[in-house]
Amino acid sequence: MPKQVDHVGRRRLIAEAVCRLADERGLEGVTLRDVAACAQVSMGAVQRCFRNKEEMLLFALQYVSERIAQRVQARLVRSPAQSAGTALGHAANEISLLGEEHRAEARVWLAFVAQAAVSKTLAGVLRRNYAALQQAFTDLVSQADEAAGCAVPLDPQREARALLALADGLTTHVLIGHLTSQEAYTVLDTHLARLWDQVTPPPPHTGEDSAR
Amino acid sequence: MPKQVDHVGRRRLIAEAVCRLADERGLEGVTLRDVAACAQVSMGAVQRCFRNKEEMLLFALQYVSERIAQRVQARLVRSPAQSAGTALGHAANEISLLGEEHRAEARVWLAFVAQAAVSKTLAGVLRRNYAALQQAFTDLVSQADEAAGCAVPLDPQREARALLALADGLTTHVLIGHLTSQEAYTVLDTHLARLWDQVTPPPPHTGEDSAR
């Protein structure tokens, strides 16, 4: 009988090594060999899991995206009694990767986005992820808008686009050190609060920042 | 007498080659040799201009940043009679690199930002550029806010931060194909218009988009 290898586990191990390398030095010049060394597996083991670097990067991108999506979902489930506006605030804060403990994930995200701008395959995966996020945020805006009952309803799709773009822009500015996490959170919270004229209270940050 | 070489001109030529490569395939794995080939100069010529790859990337980043800053400035000068709100709209649209003809520049910007997230030297240059932009936008928001004369004045610094982050996030989303240019312009214009409750008319896009 051939030796049983836990392929799923090994692929995850390799994806985590890609993320560590992306965090430390970006995806610039990262080779299958570097990843094998970082994951402490043989070059052959990496090659049996992925045919080439692009296939490996694709898997790592999906791995990170799923982790973020699961976290957003968990955040929403944790407080089922919350209003749609509050849920939107929580989801936006979770997706924005502004906190210190998500800095590595944010670097990985940025490295992938930069690669996606010149790789059609990576761009395709990112686009599918963003389409799903866009739909989730559009639904949340729509529900919150209905609950707010304003005379002039918002355009949920446009607001969702703005929110995702603002979150990503802020993440980028924190990464390059233009803004502090706290400054970025304030911008995001103000944007959310203004959507329904302070109807939606921003999620609390004070004293909680070190844990995000 | 030693042969006179136009060093300034040659450095620019090389910076443009870096930008072409960044646009075609990102900065991933770009070598001094690739740049020499692309600029159609000898490897020695590149080495006489820049001691290493980082020095070359730094120069290219400054080169692109100055070009964008000059364009923003030119856009502001072109219509001196405009209100501060309109000037802000023009500057935000110019900085956001959303149009098809700025796609290459946007890719270069993103490649540099991704590198800056893991290079302290590049991050330092980007931070100085963003600080200058931040100041310019804060001043414009402040002037526009004064002119609008609202009961509750805006926080110009926070609004400038939001505007820059939104513009960069939208640029990223257009680059990966999540949004079309037109969708991104609509988000940006709506954000600007809302700042002073439609006091600031968004700059016109219809029929002009192909030229941006």
Give the key terms:
homodimer, 212 residues, mainly alpha, Tetracycline Repressor, domain 2, 9 helices, 71% helix, elongated, disordered C terminus
Uncertain spans of chain A, ≥5 residues at pLDDT below 50? 198-202, 206-212
Total discrete domains of chain A? 1
Can you tell me the CATH superfamily of chain A?
Tetracycline Repressor, domain 2
Fill in the CATH topology of chain A: Tetracycline Repressor, domain 2
**Biggest sheet features of chain A:** none
Radius of gyration of chain A: 19 Å
Classify the oligomer: homodimer
Global morphology of chain A: elongated
Query: So what's the CATH class of chain A?
Result: Mainly Alpha
- What is the total tally of β strands of chain A? 0
Q: Beta-strand percentage of chain A? A: under 5%
What can you see in these coordinates?
Two copies of one chain form a homodimer. The first copy, chain A, has 212 residues and is mostly helical. Chain A has one domain: Tetracycline Repressor, domain 2 (Orthogonal Bundle), CATH 1.10.357. Chain A is 71% helix and 0% strand. In chain A, helix 4 (53-78) packs antiparallel against helix 5 (84-95) and helix 7 packs across helix 8. The longest helix of chain A is centred in the middle third of the chain and has 29 residues, at 120-148. Residues 198-202 and 206-212 of chain A have low confidence and may be disordered. Chains A and B meet through helix 1, helix 6, helix 7, helix 8 and helix 9 of A and helix 1, helix 6, helix 7, helix 8 and helix 9 of B.
